[in-house]
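Table 4 source record.
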Amino acid sequence: MNLMRLLACLPALLLLQSTARSTTPTSAANTSAYQVEVVVFRSVTPPSNEDFSAAPEGRGFDGGLAQDVQPPTVVRKLDASQMQLGALAARLRSSGGWQVLAHSGWIQTATDWPRHSGLDLADLGLSAPDLHGSIYLERGQQYLHLGVDLHLGSEPGWSLRELRKIKYNEKNYFDHPGFGVIAIVSPVRRSVP
């Protein structure tokens, strides 16, 4: 008898469930915010057996950067007390083999994958002499992607260009023989207005 009642109520339950889904704002996924923290560092003594003049292959960018895409929004920058990589940056500084060029954290939105529209380093508080480029955060249906397109020095200078899938709260290392980036991305548990 209970099964018959359940079957009789099933159409009403399905209608209620679809109504609940349709009243959920579909833009909530588009307004999710992420906390991003980045440490850029270089080797004090770069390896001498590397060809630094080779052009970077741009792993993961699939053909180029978008010019007509609205970039993500920086909601706010983080105070040092809100960042997670401070101890790691201190260890790099004290090691003697590495020089921390920039360390910053912020909360931002993400562009849709694969739009390739990033945020300029200067807008993120990642400023250092001869360091230029952008940081990319893109949200796909299943994965979040983090990317760097950085250039250090000039004539010829070094480039680091890579975009990859990441997991929340894991340290991600982007490497080049002369410099590197360690980054971490965490979801912000609220929607951005």
